[in-house]
Amino acid sequence: MLFSLASNTQIIYLMGMYDTVWLNCPKCNKEHGFQSKSGECYLKDYTLENCPDDALANVNRHSPCECDCGATLSVEVETRKVIVKEGSVCLTLARSAHEIQKCG
Questions:
Q1: Coil, strand or helix at 74
Q2: What gap in Å lies between CA 4 and CA 47, rounded to an integer?
Q3: How far apart are CA 54 and CA 71, in angstroms?
């Protein structure tokens, strides 16, 4: 995008800014980045544990994310849990694979 700040003085090129929330697939441990356009959007990297609430609010904008192992991932924002679907089976994983629960 081009924006002229003054009629004849300066042109600034702006790119789309976002922050990234990183999480690992609980099934295979592959790392995935979820982009958020809410919050500060200064190209910062976060985890589910340290992500500010305002940045986490928009974390599912491109969800679900399909992992190479076949799991489908998204984030339950309110509880900061990873939601994993394998076919028709839905699992909720709290911050690690050791806390598996059934969805619903």
A1: strand
A2: 36
A3: 27
pLDDT digit string (tens) for 85-97?
Answer: 877 677 666 555 5
Rounded CA gap, 21 and 49, in Å? 10
| Dist CA 68 CA 79 (whole Å) | 25
Q: Take residue 98 and report the two structure tokens written for it.
A: 């050791």
CA 55 to chain centre: 9
Give the SS3 label for residue 98: helix
Per-domain residue ranges for the chain?
Answer: 18-102
The dihedral over CA atoms of 30, 33, 34, 38, expressed in degrees to the nearest 10, equals: 150
Give me the sign of the Cα torsion angle 6, 12, 18, 19.
Answer: negative
- Residue closest to 47 by CA, chosen among 19, 70, 67, 27: 19
- Prediction pTM value: 0.72
